[in-house]
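User: Here's a protein and a ligand (adenosine monophosphate). What would the complex look like?
Assistant: Let me lay out the input and then the predicted complex.
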Amino acid sequence: MALVKTISELNDWLDEHGRKNKTVGFVPTMGYLHEGHLSLIKEARANNDLVVVSIFVNPTQFGPGEDYERYPRDIERDYKHAIESGADVVFNPEANEIYVPGSSTEVEVKGELTKKLCGASRPTHFKGVTTVVNILFNIVRPDRAYFGQKDAQQAIIVKKMVRDLHIPVEIIVCPVVREKDGLAMSSRNTYLNPDERKQAPALYRGLQQAQKYFLSGAPDSTHVEKLKAIIRQEIEKEPLADIEYIEILDGETLEDIECIEPHRNALAAVAVRFGSTRLIDNTILIMEGV
Ligand code: AMP
């Protein structure tokens, strides 16, 4: 069975499978795998000789009072799904394997990138993410690492870290995978009760409406405030939706913009709570044909 729990087991496995002369694709996850995760594994499978998937619920990216303890875990099911989707080996370490006793080093991308959007309500979250991704990169030493556009801000921040620290890995960002009704797949969707689940696709509907208006050519179709209002109106139709943010920012730098310029991507991103469950979603607004 290619399920390993320690760094030395992982190194042994990789050595035995000739990692020296092979490309390694890496998919870091927190487990409770769904089709979104599996799409990353399939993409890694298609483009690398060896595929490593990590399943690690990283304590440092959860803030106080967040859902670290109750985060869903099912390693047997995850292992099966990962292997079926093309993983060669699944790395499922304990926290003390990743964070050595007395560990006191953190990796932080500074500035606005980590303060906006999810960074505003989760001030220590991205530091936890960049620290663990860095540690995992050092352990796995992948040629390519796969992240989901679902967590758009995370992908931008990881790319920035890789560039700033000259980490020799290529970051590949894969599209958002959705349920039939448009809800972005997430391990946290399992927290939703039936009423909340029914209302949750409003995030996607709001983003779609903004996309549609953006492409309509109306005089104010590139105005950020107008587009944000369209998203808000759609989400507010659902009584259980409690909006945390609706933002439209430059798609690469996350800088504030007033209008979406041709030839620039804009990221429309939302975070909405349903009860105690916090959902995020986003879409890239880009002019067709430019
Ligand atoms: P997580 O287990 O939530 O840390 O996610 C692991 C990776 O899977 C991250 O790069 C996520 O962005 C990605 N991911 C999660 N949900 C989706 C989805 N619905 N579509 C595509 N990628 C996703």
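Summary: The chain has a mean pLDDT of 97.
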